[in-house]
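Dear support,

I submitted the protein below through the web form. The confirmation email said the job was done, but the results page showed an empty box. After a refresh the structure appeared. I'm attaching both so you can tell me whether what I see now is the final result or a partial one.
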Amino acid sequence: MFWLVSRIGEYGGIGGNEGVITIRDQRGSLTLTLVPIFLMIALMVFFIVIGTAFGARKVAYCTYQWFGEAMDFAAMDANQDGDLSQVALRTPTAQTAFTRVFAEMTGTEYINGSFIPQGQSPYPGPITLDSFEPVQPGDPIPYGTARQPGYVAVITVPVFGDEYPFIGEQYVTVPMRYFAVARSAEGIIDH
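What the results page shows now:
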């Protein structure tokens, strides 16, 4: 039982029973104890989720930057003589250049359509190369229609993942598409 003792009584006197107040109904005291504990747990979960989301966003953003640079390099490397009529025939050369450069940028190794993380890689699982295709003017590309020939690649990037009992490895993945215009590397790259 809680006792609140006041030195000043009901009539302004000191001492006696006039200043003693007894609280007999204690049903809310347990709730007042649990509310701050619940708020602390909720805040901790909130900040963990926000931190994880920002980390996954950073991995996705950096990967898209590297993806674009590797695609631009591959499109330029495959078209060294500037002959845009040969873009479709040079797809294997462009894909080889892309996989080599992208694997080096991301710290992965390209094996059978997947970029397998090596060492201290930020990726929880393999990045998959879903497609790598030549594009001619008029073909659909991300955000519109191609005006020039080039290459479109589609990859799936795991940005967050974990292993769960009885389920196995699960990933949050982000699909990415990029169109690289075939342009001449003549005078830029020395082979």
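Response: this is the final, complete result; the empty box was a page-load delay. The helical segments are 29-78, 91-106.
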